[in-house]
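Chapter review: from sequence to fold.
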Amino acid sequence: MDPLQDPSFLTIACNYGRLGNQMFTYASLLGLSKMNKRTPYAPKCNMDTVRRYFKVTAAEISDLSKQNRSEYPLGPYFRPKDAHIPKDKNILTGYPYPNSFTFFDQIRDEIRKEFQFKESIISYAQTYLHSLKNVTRSDVTFVGIHVRRTDYCKWLQNYYGRQVNMMYFKQAIEYFQLKYSRVIFVVVSDDRGWCKRKLGIWPNVFVAPEQTDSAHDMALMSQCNHTIMTYGSFGFWCSYLAGGETIYFDEYIAPNSSSLLVTW
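The token string follows.
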């Protein structure tokens, strides 16, 4: 069926974000479609990323031409009126990065099913964790640590934010060590050198080998029991797919930051 002939058709605008942002875009489309009893059609620009790694099931459509677009603007998070998108609106636009779980958490199980990694990616993650478990020769609780640095450090400076500090990691690691008898911490990061220097002081903290594709890092985090994260969309998805407990750094944005002053 031609998507444009489907009266329940709904899609979402493209953005140029990386894996975490593309997952938010896809999940937001699914969540809002379900809420509004619409049929989700993910744009090709979005599907090109998520389909590479996951067993996603939404139909695909090329970008809509201007004459076929009837836009519904989103804000940065869910508003009550978003549950009643007019029938004549067929593309979600507005806020360019709909990176809020409020758009889709009501179908959490469905979202996690959509974001099942392909077998080769999961195999890497399980093989690596098994190698660490053999080191201890006992049952363990795995806690993933995602450390975002590089570009995000500059972003925080621009918005008068605060970088995660060592006290945060110390307290988070101690929390899990007190709660579980045998814990292994697995670190992924865009700055593994920093992690080895700073987090390598704990004997049960392992910095995973750097991979050519970030999806392998996310898959590794998703196979852990719990998560310690810093900030960013990638870290969110690591913890969301893992389930369990998540400790996150909630002091990275200043209360008066302009990034919070969004009008819509």
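Two observations follow directly from the output. Residues 69 and 91 are 7 Å apart (CA to CA). The chain has nine helices and ten strands.
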